[in-house]
Amino acid sequence: MSVARFERFFRLAASLDVDKSDIKRYQDFVNQKIYDLMLIAQGTAKANGRDIILPRDIPVTKGLQESVHAFRELDQELDLAPLLEQVLILPPLDRGLAEETLDGLPQLVGGLSLALARTFKIIDPALKNPNTQAWEQAFEIFNLLL
Hints:
Blueprint: H1 3-14, H2 22-47, E1 52-53, H3 62-78, H4 81-87, E2 96-97, H5 99-123, H6 132-145
Parallel strand pairs: 1-2
Helix pairs in contact: 2-5, 3-5, 4-5, 5-6
């Protein structure tokens, strides 16, 4: 992932200064949360007798949907969606992903990313550079919700 674009995203999203060392934490976060969402979506597809996961199977909350919309506006300036595709490692699943599901994943990752950045500021409004503790707290909050 382009470090400069990653840094700029967090700066614009929540006035945070992140650096190259934060990229691994970020990638771990994104991939774990996408895996969590896909596990639930897989169960929904199975319950509906389908072999593929459709976008409607993914449990997108109102807050996450709002973050996805806000990310789209920010992405027009940054063009991050192609980079987010590189960050994402799709987990092995029992069900395949429909083409429209695959196409929507960068936007979903972007929404999660924006929500993560804003979560740091909720935890500590004065935070400028998230440390290990801040990352762990944000992960714990998301683990409660997703």
